[in-house]
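debug: dumping io for the single-chain case to check the tokenizer round-trip. Nothing else runs in this session.
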Amino acid sequence: MKKVICALLMLWGQGTHAQQPVKIACVGNSITEGPGRNHPDSYPLQLQKMLGQGYLVKNFGVSARTLLRKGDFPFWNEPQFEQVKDFKPDILVIKLGTNDSKPQNWAHKDDFLNDYLEMIRTFKEHMSEEGKVFVCLPAPVFKDNWGITEQLIVDEMTPLIREAARRTGAEIIDLHHSLKPYTSLFPDGVHPNKEGAKMLARAVADSLQ
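debug: decoded output
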């Protein structure tokens, strides 16, 4: 009996060692970073809790960053850009665009689609063939603030994000639709509170699963 138990334990140990967690990289701005990249209230860490031990979710959000290379604070220039590539995610979730709607950034709107395509392609070079990219339509802007504009995001930016997804085969996560009912969870009109981040994480989790 002892030999049987030992054999089973050895097989179980080999199985758990071989079963690596699915790695998820969350790229974004302050809405992704939340109170901090390692803060449990941030949406990526709430997503980790929802998905469980079979997943490893990393928060690569950086406040105020843009997808546009010519934006005032491009995500491309951050250490997190290289860290995502080093992480070699199985799943990539991009939630950028909100800060791109600011006038000084949207002045370069003609570059937005090509920059989005290039970001996806760059990250996909560091993912397996089975890797999957998800692009998020920005969360609603319940109150225009800091130059961030709801109408611009809906009318001008969203079609470009949809086109980027179409050209690259990425999946779309429609956070705008999913979070529209939760005005009270966005105290300043742009950033979700803890419960709002939870609703965001739930929308992402539902799309991934």
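debug: round-trip ok. Strands lie at 22-28, 55-61, 91-95, 132-137, 171-174.
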